[in-house]
Amino acid sequence: MVLCTANRCRSPLAAALLHNVLAERGVSAEVDAFGLLEPGFPAPAETVAVAATRGLDLSDHRSRRLDAAVVSHADLVLAMERRHVREVVAADPAAWPRTFTLKEIVRRGQRIGGRKSGEALTTWVARAHEGRRSRELLGASELDDVADPVGSPLGEHEDLALELEDLTRELAELIVPTD
C-alpha cells in the first residue's frame, strides 16, 4: 500500500509505477494507493499527463481514504512523508514494523541488502525494521519526505515522477530476489 495526503498525486503515481516495475520483473502484486483526506477526487491533470508519458493511465483515478482495516491487510505500507507514517501507526499501532516512508525503506534496504531467494517479504521487511526508533520519524525531513506537487506546474509533477521512478525501481530491486 502507498499513502500520501490526498491520494491525488504522489501515492497513485507511486503505486502505478511500483506495480509496473514489479510486473516487469514477473511479480504479480496488488499495490493500492490511499490518502488521509476525503475520498472521491481525481488526480490533477499534470499527474495524469506525467503518468501517461510513462504508459500509465491515471485518468479514472479517484482518491480513497485510508482506514485501519486497509492497513491491517497490507504487507508493506509506503508513505510519502514521515507524518503519514505517524498517521498509519496512530490508526493501527501494530502496523509500525511494516510502515516506512518510501525513501526510508529504500535506504534501509540498501543497508541490509536485498531480499534473499526463498525469504518471505514479511521477513525482509522485519529485517529492514530492526533497530528503528519511532522518534526518528518526528518532524519533516527531506531525507524521508517526497515533496507534494499539488497545485504546481507540470515541471514539478515531472520531477516527482522521476524521483518516484528511481525509488520504485530501487525498491523493486531490493524486494524481488534475483537468484
General shape: globular
Main beta sheet = 4 strands, parallel
Distance between the termini: 26 Å
CATH architecture field: 3-Layer(aba) Sandwich
By secondary-structure content and strand pairing, the structural class works out as mainly alpha
Integer average pLDDT: 94
How much helix is in the residues? Answer: 40-55%
- Widest sheet: strand ordering: 2-1-3-4
Can you tag this structure with a few keywords?
Rossmann fold, 179 residues, 4 strands, mainly alpha
Chain-wise SSE layout:
Elements: E1 2-3, H1 10-24, E2 33-34, H2 45-52, H3 68-73, E3 77-79, H4 82-91, E4 99-101, H5 102-112, H6 121-129, H7 154-175
Parallel strand pairs: 1-2, 1-3, 3-4
Please give a quick description of this structure:
Helices cover 45% and strands 6% of the residues. The protein has helices spanning 10-24, 45-52, 68-73, 82-91, 102-112, 121-129, 154-175; strands at residues 2-3, 33-34, 77-79, 99-101.
What does this structure look like?
This protein is 45% helix and 6% strand. The protein is mostly helical and 179 residues long. The protein has one domain: Response regulator (Rossmann fold, 3-Layer(aba) Sandwich). The protein has a four-stranded parallel beta sheet. Helix 2 (45-52) crosses helix 7 and helix 5 packs across helix 6. The chain is globular and about 40 Å long.
